[in-house]
Amino acid sequence: MVVEVSNIKTVKKAKTKKINDFCIKADALRNENSFKEAAANYLNSILIDRKDAYSYYGLGVCCKHLKDYARAIRYLEKATEIDEEYYDAFFELGVCHLLEGIPCGAIKNFVRAIQIDPEKPEAILQLGIAHELCEEYDLALMIYQKLIDNSSGFLKAYEHKSTLLMKLDRYQEASKILNELLKLNPEYYRAYVGIAICFDKLGRKIDALRYYRKFLQKKPFSHQAQFVKTRLLKLKSCFDSKNNLKIVQ
Fold it and tell me: What confidence score (pLDDT) does residue 18 get?
């Protein structure tokens, strides 16, 4: 009997080592963006132990990067079934639902991720995005504001809230949020063009000019630079040589 127990332990130890070896190799390949090769190694690990949540998680993440979102969802769901406290698996499952165009299906996974670890703001942000994509704008705005209140240094929350406010034509509110963002990080260049657009929409042409110029000083070769330059020329044409607004006859 002692020999049998010893043999069982030896077999289990060898099995665990094989799984670890495959996962270590798969992780290294995934970090090198070799997702097909990494997926093959995660699959080899699963063939040894079909109850290894990490292997299903890794395989799901590889499928996500290969843009096979339906398969990624299946593998990540399996990981969450095996380990009901797997934050990363629930988070990635929510992301894959978003990528697959099922935002309302993503919500429950982000909620579960937040329940597991409420200290990670990224899951809360993604929950807001999911509600926004479901056109639940008031709820999305509330979530973004909660992030701003509880994680003031999480700049993405400011950007997402201001972008949604602009989408809803609430430019005055959006400009205030973007100004708060700039107080935290004056180098956050997208905030300058955002504020400029808000002022532009509000008819505050001089203020819009100032912020469009600030944006170009920060990012003269940005993909938005041509739009900003075109808009600057258009706004400048509204003023005379003394910087007074021209009267349209």
Answer: 78
